[in-house]
Amino acid sequence: MESGRFITPTQGKETSRLPGMTTTTDVPASGVSLSERLRQDLAGLRESGLLISPRVLDAPQRARTRVDGREVVNLASNNYLGFADHPRLKERAAQYLQQWGVGAGAVRTIAGTLRIHEDFERQLADFKHTGSALVLHSGFSTNQGVLGGLLREGDLVVSDELNHASIIDGLRLTKATKKIYKHADPADLDRVLRENPSEGLKLVVTDGVFSMDGDVAPLDKLVEVARRYGAVTYVDDAHGSGVMGEAGRGTVHHFGFEYADDVIQVGTLSKAWGGVGGYAAGHPDLRELLINRARPYLFSTAQPPAVVGALAAALDEVQRDPSLMERLWDNTRFFKAELGRLGFDTLGSVTPITPVVFGEASAAFEASRRLFDLGIFAVGLGFPTVPRDLARIRNIVTAEHTRDDLEQALSAYQQVGRDLGVIA
């Protein structure tokens, strides 16, 4: 037989296989089978109460939608500005689809960079007030690509203890020395930097808005400490972009650092902006380095044209219509104030992310189920996503919610909170 050639049973007696491949009879039956591994792992998740079974939306992502066949007020999505089903975004997406097709057809570095990709990146850099911007495929992969492309052995990275999982995983891929500082604590950041001198690049990494508690990193103080030690500040603004700062330019803009070359901002385009993708923005040379070093960028096909069109329209729309940001924050202030009046603990959140604490995970999950029965879609979160005694329901208020939506949600919360003994 020719090397590597497959032979059917009718063509010869030798077993069909690739060079170096053994037949099943050559390998003794041992170890754990795939079926057994899957059964064991799923059983463990089920017994620990951590098995996830996502609810299914039967209608577009809106402030009111249909979930598992039920009409609900939606407090579970990241659709801050109501862009996920916005008519202007859909119109631009359809236009780009017709003009440019359904896909880019290649990775960006080979033949997948369409003119619209570069146009949008220039638009994004202008919007963010940065020297450059590069779009990747998700916020998660952006952290992997930027941290992996930027950090080397001998560098020092100091990360907030409550940073997002994508930052944690991205740092695991680097050979930099990794240290942790206490959550949102500039004094502890100063201590860690002082105790860990480095001749390499020093990077302070923080979320801009923390996704579980809804608090904001004190960037004014963190950047001051970082600069004292010659460190660069890296801000993951997934929940701040489109929410904080003028026209939603982000947490970096909110604190006045948008023109600073020693501040890198990354984030997602799938929350406030209604589409999908991630971005990195900052120093004028950052984009060129990432084009050459960021592995998710180098080995993934470029974003489809319809997505690019929708995102470009989103940046136009948030600047054209200031009422989007006004409604987002009016709704946020109203909802938080009323939850506080009812007696709920919202952990001092100051952003549209509004946690309502129920204590034990079982109570948070039961509250979520009861709220759903009352027409409110809000998801319970327990350990290990949040601390054991701080299980909560995370609510996200959007610009699209009406006062009637929020009052219906508050009425349901009052009933469920009293029934479960969380409020009087």
TrEMBL record:
<protein>
    <submittedName>
        <fullName>Aminotransferase, class II</fullName>
    </submittedName>
</protein>
<feature type="domain" description="Aminotransferase class I/classII large">
    <location>
        <begin position="71"/>
        <end position="411"/>
    </location>
</feature>
<dbReference type="InterPro" id="IPR004839">
    <property type="entry name" value="Aminotransferase_I/II_large"/>
</dbReference>
<dbReference type="InterPro" id="IPR001917">
    <property type="entry name" value="Aminotrans_II_pyridoxalP_BS"/>
</dbReference>
<dbReference type="InterPro" id="IPR050087">
    <property type="entry name" value="AON_synthase_class-II"/>
</dbReference>
<comment type="subunit">
    <text>Homodimer.</text>
</comment>
<dbReference type="InterPro" id="IPR015424">
    <property type="entry name" value="PyrdxlP-dep_Trfase"/>
</dbReference>
<dbReference type="InterPro" id="IPR015421">
    <property type="entry name" value="PyrdxlP-dep_Trfase_major"/>
</dbReference>
<feature type="region of interest" description="Disordered">
    <location>
        <begin position="1"/>
        <end position="30"/>
    </location>
</feature>
<comment type="similarity">
    <text>Belongs to the class-II pyridoxal-phosphate-dependent aminotransferase family.</text>
</comment>
<keyword id="KW-0808">Transferase</keyword>
<keyword id="KW-0032">Aminotransferase</keyword>
<dbReference type="GO" id="GO:0008483">
    <property type="term" value="F:transaminase activity"/>
</dbReference>
<dbReference type="InterPro" id="IPR015422">
    <property type="entry name" value="PyrdxlP-dep_Trfase_small"/>
</dbReference>
<dbReference type="Pfam" id="PF00155">
    <property type="entry name" value="Aminotran_1_2"/>
</dbReference>
<dbReference type="InterPro" id="IPR010962">
    <property type="entry name" value="AONS_Archaea/Firmicutes"/>
</dbReference>
<dbReference type="GO" id="GO:0030170">
    <property type="term" value="F:pyridoxal phosphate binding"/>
</dbReference>
<keyword id="KW-0663">Pyridoxal phosphate</keyword>
